[in-house]
């Protein structure tokens, strides 16, 4: 592996927010989600400086979500990232330098050993703010 730092990105911070009342168990739900503005181009820029991986969680009540998240990556990034998806309910078990996550207190994100970047916070309110910090 090269000497680039490892950057994990939570997939939910890349897609348009959905309402909690929406049915996340519906087949096709995760595959149909739209990317957040500037997310795709920002991730491609970051990938030229970091080893980028998607680190995401999927609801146990929707086994299709696991497959749909992988297909979402392929749909929006092609073959470049489809083998860079890690699905886990224990994000703190992954070793890396940075984790960009919109839910810093869920699934072990707050126990991640590297630096946690809270996407959607005042400091990192959008992808431009993340780029400004990391590049």
From TrEMBL:
One GO term of the biological process aspect: pyrimidine deoxyribonucleotide catabolic process
GO MF annotation: an example: 5'-nucleotidase activity
SUPFAM superfamilies reported for this sequence: HAD-like (SSF56784)
Superkingdom to which the source organism belongs: Bacteria
Gene3D superfamilies: HAD superfamily/HAD-like
Xref: InterPro entries: 5'(3')-deoxyribonucleotidase, HAD-like_sf, HAD_sf
A matching Pfam family: NT5C
Family label: Belongs to the 5'(3')-deoxyribonucleotidase family.
Protein name: Uncharacterized protein
Organism: Flammeovirga agarivorans
